[in-house]
Specification:
Elements: H1 8-12, H2 27-30, E1 34-38, E2 46-51, H3 62-77, E3 83-88, E4 93-95, H4 100-104, H5 108-126, E5 132-136, E6 139-141, H6 143-150, E7 153-157, E8 162-164, H7 178-186, H8 188-197, E9 201-202, H9 203-209, E10 214-216, H10 224-236, H11 241-254, H12 259-278, E11 294-295, H13 312-315, E12 322-325, H14 329-347, E13 357-360, E14 363-367, E15 370-374, E16 376-380, E17 383-387, E18 390-394, E19 397-407
Organism: Equus asinus (Donkey)
GO molecular function, one term: lyase activity
Protein name: Enoyl-CoA hydratase domain containing 2
Length: 417
C-alpha cells in the first residue's frame, strides 16, 4: 500500500513556528547532539540540521536518534522551512554509522527496538515534505550513508568524503534502508557489488556512479561540500514551494509503483497544482503558504478566509468545501478527527457566532469495478460529524481522493451575508 501523499492531519493542526536554536550562542543547544538553525536574510527558508557528537564521530545512538526525530517532527510543522540541509559540526566526519559500542550494551530485544527506530528515522527524513540535502565533507559509512541516501540530494567533497555500506565487513548487513535505497539510486547490480564487497568510495567516485549529485574540491576550512549544498539550496528557494513539494511527491510515490500508476500519481499532483493556481480567483481556508494540500470548490460561497485552528471560528463560511487528496484512507480519518476537535473547541462559548458545527462527507469506494457508497459519522453536542473516503485502485496501487465539507449554520438572529 502506498504511503500518504501528505499528512492531512498535520495540515489541519494549529500552526506554530518552530523555535530554532542558534547553535553558536545557545548554551542549551551546545549540549545537544542534534542542533537546528534557521538561516536568515537572503537564505531565509533554508534550515540546517547540525549533527554534533564529536566523541563518537556522530555515530547513531539512542540520544542522537531521539533528538533527530524530535527535530524532524517540529520542522514538519514549520511552513517556513523550504529546504532542509543536513551537515556535520564535526570536522572530517558526516556520520560514522551506528554506535556499535552502545549497541554492545543492549539486549537482543533492545537492539531490535533500536533498529526499528533507526529505520523509522530514515523514513521520516525521506518523507520530509520539503527538499532535503546532505552535505558530505567527511566519512559517511554504514548508517551515515543510509542517512544521506534518505535525503533527496547529496553533495560531497571530492577527496575527503568517504562513503560506503561497509556492514558486511563486520559481519552485519545494512539495516536502516541501505539495501532498498541504494539499488533505487544506482541500480540493482551496482548496489549488490558495493554491499557485497563493503567498498568505500571517494566523493569523486561517488559522483561518477551517480551516488552524489555534486563532488567539489575541498577547501582549507573543510566545509566545501556544505557551501556547495547551501548554494544548491539557494537555487531551490525562489521556486514555487507548492510546485516543488508536489514534484517531490510525484517522483517519490511514482518510484514505488508501475509506470501506469506513476502516471496517475503525476496526474493527481498536476491537478492539485492547477487548483492551487486557480485559488487566486476565490478565497480559501488557509493562507497561501499553508494551503499545501487543501482545495476549495470554486463555487463555494465564503464570508472570509482563515486557517483551521487559528481563526476558523469566525471565518469559515457557509457550505464551505475542503478537499484533501491523499493515498491513504487513514489520513482522512486523522484529518476528520482533528478538524472535528478543532471546530468543536473553537466554536464553543462566547467566542463563537455559531450555534453548532456540522462536518458532513459522502463517500464511495471502487475496487476492481465494484463500487460501494454510503456515509458514516460521529457527533457530540454542540456539533455533529460524518466522514468518509473516496478512492479507487489502479492495479496494486491505492489512489483515494477525500473530500471534507464543513457547514456552519448561523444563529437565528444572525444576518446571512
Amino acid at each position: 500500500m502506498l504511503r500518504p501523499l501528505t499528512s492531512a492531519l498535520r495540515l489541519l493542526r494549529p500552526w506554530k513556528p518552530l523555535q530554532t536554536r542558534g547553535c553558536a550562542s545557545d548554551e542549551a543547544a551546545r549540549g545537544r547532539e542534534i542542533q537546528v538553525r534557521a538561516l536568515e536574510g537572503p537564505d531565509q527558508g533554508i534550515t540546517e540540521i547540525l549533527m554534533n557528537r564529536p566523541r563518537a564521530r556522530n555515530a547513531l545512538g539512542n540520544v542522537f536518534v531521539s533528538e533527530l526525530l524530535e527535530a524532524l517532527a517540529q520542522l514538519r510543522e514549520d511552513r517556513q522551512v523550504r529546504v532542509l540541509l543536513f551537515r556535520s559540526a564535526v570536522k572530517g566526519v558526516f556520520c560514522a554509522g551506528a554506535d556499535l559500542k552502545e549497541r554492545e550494551q543492549m539486549s537482543e530485544a533492545e537492539v531490535e527496538v533500536f533498529v526499528q527506530r533507526l529505520r523509522g528515522m530514515m523514513t521520516e527524513i525521506a518523507a520530509f515534505p520539503a527538499p532535503t540535502i546532505a552535505a558530505l565533507d567527511g566519512f559517511a559509512l554504514g548508517g551515515g550513508l543510509e542517512l544521506a541516501l534518505a535525503c533527496d540530494l547529496r553533495v560531497a567533497a571530492a577527496s575527503t568524503a568517504v562513503m560506503g555500506l561497509i556492514e558486511t565487513t563486520r559481519g552485519l548487513l545494512p539495516g536502516a534502508g541501505g539495501t532498498q535505497r541504494l539499488p533505487r539510486c544506482l541500480g540493482v547490480a551496482l548496489a549488490k557489488e558495493l554491499i557485497f564487497t563493503g567498498r568505500r568510495l571517494s566523493g569523486t567516485q561517488a559522483q561518477v556512479l551517480g551516488l552524489v549529485n555534486h563532488a567539489v574540491a575541498q577547501n582549507e576550512e573543510g566545509n566545501a561540500a556544505y557551501h556547495r549544498a547551501r548554494a544548491l539550496a539557494q537555487e531551490i528557494l525562489p521556486q514555487a514551494p507548492i510546485a516543488v513539494r508536489l514534484s517531490k511527491v510525484a517522483i517519490d510515490r511514482g518510484m514505488e509503483v508501475d509506470i501506469a500508476s506513476g502516471m496517475a500519481i503525476e496526474g493527481i499532483c498536476y491537478a492539485q497544482k492547477n487548483k492551487f493556481s486557480a485559488r487566486r480567483e476565490y478565497s480559501g481556508f488557509c493562507q497561501e503558504e499553508q494551503l499545501s494540500y487543501q482545495i476549495l470548490e470554486k463555487s463555494a460561497p465564503l464570508k472570509a478566509t482563515g486557517s483551521p485552528g487559528l481563526a476558523v471560528r469566525r471565518q469559515v463560511g457557509y457550505d464551505t468545501c475542503c478537499k484533501i487528496a491523499d493515498f491513504h484512507f487513514f489520513a482522512l480519518e486523522q484529518a476528520a478527527d482533528m478538524l472535528h476537535h478543532t471546530l468543536c473547541h473553537q466554536l464553543r462559548g462566547e467566542s463563537s457566532d455559531f450555534s453548532h458545527v456540522v462536518l458532513q462527507v459522502r463517500w464511495s469506494r471502487e475496487y476492481q469495478g465494484e463500487e460501494r457508497r454510503g456515509a458514516s459519522g460521529i457527533g457530540s453536542s454542540p456539533s455533529a460529524l460524518t466522514r468518509s473516503d473516496t478512492f479507487r485502485t489502479l492495479g496494486p496501487s491505492l489512489l483515494p481522493l477525500y473530500q471534507l465539507t464543513p457547514t456552519i449554520p448561523p444563529l437565528d438572529n444572525e444576518d446571512d451575508q
